[in-house]
Design brief:
Blueprint (H helix, E strand, L loop, with lengths): L3 H20 L3 H19 L2 H11 L3 H9 L4 H4 L2 H15 L4 H14 L4 H17 L5
Length: 139
């Protein structure tokens, strides 16, 4: 929902607030604020929109996943590098049903940007191999 830099600013403000609470001897308030900042740190590394799109894909709801992915207008500014790779990977999965040539470009872009898990890299390469077979190319 928030830009990646806004998430970091919110986290730093909450951490400063937590330190102030610790200094004022309100220990439980400080602990709860540190935990709240942990949520924003988690969502910095794991984008909430991508998580919801993955949940929709697990339920085979491609239309719902497409709606969640459409909320990301500019992936370069909203996502960190690995999340951007997964964004293009998910877009490629969505388009592999309808537009094979565009899906091929998105899978290649996802692989060049980088996917963090080896099985996701293998999945993208298998999708590219399937697209090549569909287009009757040997390489």
């Amino acid at each position: 929902m928030f830009n990646k830099y806004i998430k970091l600013v919110i986290t730093s403000v909450i951490i400063v607030w937590a330190v102030m609470q610790f200094a004022a001897a309100h220990i439980m308030n400080g602990i709860s604020l540190v935990l709240l900042s942990g949520i924003f740190i988690f969502f910095y590394f794991k984008n909430e929109i991508l998580l919801l799109a993955f949940l929709r894909l697990r339920k085979q709801d491609f239309a719902g996943a497409g709606k969640w992915l459409a909320r990301i207008k500019n992936p370069k500014s909203a996502l960190i590098k690995t999340q951007e790779g997964y964004y293009y990977f998910l877009q490629g999965l969505m388009l592999s049903q309808t537009n094979i040539s565009q899906a091929e470009k998105l899978f290649k872009k996802a692989l060049t940007i980088g996917l963090s898990m080896n099985h996701d890299k293998a999945m993208a390469k298998l999708q590219l191999a399937g697209i090549a077979m569909t287009k009757r190319r040997k390489r």
